[in-house]
Amino acid sequence: MELKVSQLKSLLNKKLTVSQMGLIFIIMLVKESDPKMTLAKFKTKVKMKDVKEDLIELHEQNVLHWSGHKAAKKSVEKEKVTPEIIDIIKFMNNLYSRSFDPSSGNTVTSLTNRLAKYSVDDIKKVISNRYLEWKDDKVMSKHLNPTVIFRAKNFEKYFDEAKDSKIGVSIMTAERISLQDNQILNTELVRDFNNKSIYSIRTYNLNQHGSRIGAGRNSRVYGSVLKKLIKKEHNKINRGETSEFEYVYKTQ
Is residue 144 a contact partner of residue 115, using CB atoms and an 8 Å limit? Predict the structure, then answer.
């Protein structure tokens, strides 16, 4: 690592941040005390994780020369938390009722690698699929986390299973139309439901006044079937008849 400026005055013409200026002073002081200072030795003086981005910027502004610039820049870009990663982890946290950190190093690295091949929707399908497959299993439910689901050797298999079974697509549909748990379904809401996807619902019998009878019953039905059931109740109302059933969307 070698400074290309010898006078502090010339630094004033550079558009540097306070942290970058402070880093330059540290390098100058270290080099003055030990002219043969190497990068390996310099790493013992500072936390490289904290100064890596500043070193990259200083190199690109031609303030100093750093032989490790290319490797460091590649590493930093790989570790950046993107809006896509934040969106994916937010979706996972909402569904799993957890609080995983989107900036976790392992999570960022894994998702960055997965996003190189898969779309955000693809990854959400896997998150949803694993949730429906594992949530009621005491052993497997413990694996509902970024480390297991986004691991390279696991993800491709999970994606193939989600694509073939279509289990989990219903949750994706619900997110796209902002469908909430316990929301009453109607013809407009189910219009975009995938016919071949399985949806979790709770069915309530209604009395002649339109009030619910009993606690209702849970079931899982195909989108095509659910559309027909809701359309049937809709047609009754249009004919002036009393609806017999009410269908409520369930995320679990």
Answer: no
CB 126 within 8 A of CB 99: no
Select from 178, 226, 170, 171 the least CA-distant residue to 198: 170
Structurally, the chain folds into a number of domains equal to 3
pTM (global) more than 0.70:
no
244 CB neighbour count, 10 Å cutoff? 15
96, 146: one domain: yes
Give percent of the chain with pLDDT exceeding 70: 84
Residue that finishes a domain, picked among 165, 192, 227: 165
Question: Does residue 187 sit in the same domain as residue 159?
Answer: no
How do 64-65 and 2-3 pair as beta strands? Answer: antiparallel
Neighbour count for residue 135 (Cβ, 10 Å): 13
